[in-house]
Amino acid sequence: MRHSALSWPLTRRAYLAHTLALAAAPALAGAAQRAHQRWVVINLSLEPDSLDPTMAASAAVGEVVHYNVLEGLTRIEENGSVAPLLAQRWQMDARQRTCTLQLRQGVRFHDGTPFDAAAVRFSFERARAPGSTNKARKTLFDNIAHIATPDAHTVVLGLHHADAHLPFRLGENTAVILSPASAGAAATAPVGTGPYRVQQWQRGHSITLEPASTYRHAKTLYMRGATFRFLYTPEAQAAALHGEEMDLFLHFATNSVRGLVADSRYQLLLGTSSSKGLLALNHRRAPLADLRVRRAITHAIDREAFIRTVFEGRGTVIGSHFSPSDPGYVHLAHRYPYDPDRARALLREALGSAPLRLSLALPPPPYARLGGPVLAADLERVGITVEPRPLEWAQWLAGPFKGDFDMTLITHVEPLDYPIYTDPGYYFGYDSAAFRQLVQRHAQSESPRERARLFAQLQRHLAEDAVNAWLYASQVGTVVRKGLRGVWMHYPIFVHDIAALRWESEEDTA
């Protein structure tokens, strides 16, 4: 495991200069050749730690396999609407407690085994089993009271509580259907029903997909394959772009893209997503268990300046674990305005004259490495000594994500994932019986007006408790080669649908 050698404090120029050597990656085929071969090369800013999105935490997993290798019962479109996929249709009862799904027939997994109701039942029972690390366990699978399979092509889901978002949740990558015969190997060799299969995973470099001969529409596939290339830094990405090695760059949180769009062969798409950027605080650590200290930290951060500095102004200040794209969003950023004097007063009230030293864990994405010094400077101005800890992604998953941290700068990209705050075992360790009761009341309510009122209360409760220091909802920046069609601008979920992509030049000459 390689440790970062980045120095501190870290300016944007120093950060880019540090990674210049990484730009010397082997060149791939040029754009014209890839268009002729009907191939696409996509940059990932993080290498997945697994290829099983039903058990792994990284959003990069879904970027590679969702819609491409693994499919779910429903499909989420760019505008957030839900369409059929492995389920041809579904129907919710009047109380939204029972969902009956009719499955698509004649579908096979890449290993030749049939997709049927038994595969759905197996996948969902695996996701909700004791010890499951599925990210949607709280939001989806723990709410499934029973699963019935009256025949090979029908699945009936009975819910503990009504969930109007169930069809959407079934379309997230956490609910993809795995082959029972090979699910145990999904982390390295996923077997799905999608149009492509994993041809090669070259650790530290790339993942290559090739068409799956078992796919139900294999003869109509336009793209003959895709390469996901791991380039972590803006400097390496810019070098690959100017060398015509890449066709698409997606930034969860849009950092400096000015250099990436200087080349007239590319265009920049700025869109929305459900992502939330936050300074996560460990409630298991004594000083951070004190509400006054958490509020002081939030008052100490100039979030508008953070967005200007790190994202070149492309983002919105938020005040709770909800995105402006969420239906029923309440803007709460005003709850903790930038106020260093108030922050100092709260710290004196909580700690007296005792010094406060906190470590700041920084995962590899540029928003964290560039944003870390900004946060550290704000906190140090109010008397908090900050110790930076730049980490590789595997280190972050093994450390902060397991609860070993004081503070960490991270972006959560999952939509409507507020139930994570009902789990005291989650990495930041928030334990509030009142919030759990509020979530339960919201889930059990069958009145739309009451649900809307409770949804607003959920947001205000987290803000009042200053559970974390929420910073931004950033724009998603997609830098795409001109002539490549079918790329999303908005990302209700993070996915690259390779089968939907087209090279314009090929279409024009067909």
From TrEMBL:
Q: Name one GO cellular component term.
A: ATP-binding cassette (ABC) transporter complex
Q: Please indicate if the UniProt record lists Signal as a keyword.
A: yes
Q: Which residues form the Solute-binding protein family domain?
A: 82-410
Write down what this protein is called.
Peptide/nickel transport system substrate-binding protein
Signal peptide range in chain numbering: 1-29
Q: Name one GO biological process term.
A: peptide transport
The answer on whether this UniProt entry bears the keyword DNA-binding reads no
PROSITE patterns, per the entry: TAT
Q: Which Gene3D superfamilies match?
A: Dipeptide-binding Protein, Domain 3 (3.10.105.10), Periplasmic binding protein-like II (3.40.190.10)
A GO molecular-function annotation: peptide transmembrane transporter activity
Give the keywords, sorted.
Signal
This protein's species is: Paenacidovorax caeni
Which family would the database say this protein is a member of?
A: Belongs to the bacterial solute-binding protein 5 family.
